[in-house]
Amino acid sequence: MKVMRFPFIALVLLALATACVTLLQSGTRAYGSMVHAKQAQTSSAAIARGKYLVEDVARCWECHTPVKDDGSWDRNQWLRGGRVFIRPVVPNGNWAERAPGIAGFPGFTEEQGEHILEKGEAPDGRALQPPMHTYHLNHADAVAIIAYLKSLSSSD
Ligand code: HEC
User: Fold this and answer.
1) What residue's CA is closest to ligand 1, atom 27?
2) Within a domain: residue 59?
């Protein structure tokens, strides 16, 4: 009898071990998809916050969207760059004529964009030309703004 019991116990242990591995695997898969869902949620939350900061707080579009002949901003060219329409009252030799297109965030890496928005200077350390503001945003806000700008198309 003793001889027979050993293979039986071994079989039960093997079955238990297989069940554990299967459970662990499905648990890992479930955790993986939770992480993906969380990341997607975070980036859509970041885009929504970036949109709010760009449109309602910093109002980047006032300079970075072209103005139509009737004086209104061209919604079809949203944030695609335009002629600067404001002039300094006191002459300023460094005043920029144009604001570049920032829809799609072309021309800069995310790190460079973070530098511009967090340090208030160009990525190479050059002083930004007014009327571009020297923003000193916190990192999360800069990341959110760049995520929103990257979600936009730079052309039709
Ligand atoms: C009052 C006008 C104005 C507003 C508001 C404004 N910008 Fe600008 N921006 C400019 C002008 C003009 C330039 C070109 C000056 C320069 O590059 O030195 C510029 C340049 C830039 C550049 C390129 C910088 C570089 O290193 O060449 C980026 C990126 C940028 N702006 C992003 C933004 C974002 C994002 C916002 C909103 C959070 C914003 N701007 C708000 C006028 C503005």
Assistant:
1) 122
2) yes
Ligand 1 centre to CA of 111 (Å) is: 16
Take residue 22 and report the two structure tokens written for it: 């299967």
Total of domains in the chain: 1
**Test site for ligand 1: of 132, 134, 136, 138, most ligand atoms within 8 A of the Cβ:** 132
Q: Which three-class secondary structure state does DSSP give residue 90?
A: coil
Return per-residue pLDDT of the chain as tens, 156 residues: 555 566 666 665 556 566 645 655 766 676 666 666 666 666 999 999 999 999 999 999 999 999 999 999 999 999 999 999 999 999 999 999 999 999 999 999 999 999 999 999 999 999 999 999 999 999 999 999 999 999 999 998
**CATH number, domain with residue 114:** 1.10.760.10
List CB contacts of 123: < 8 A, sequence separation 6 or more.
108, 111, 112, 115, 116
Host domain of residue 52 = 43-156
Q: Is position 145 within any domain?
A: yes
pTM for this predicted structure: 0.82
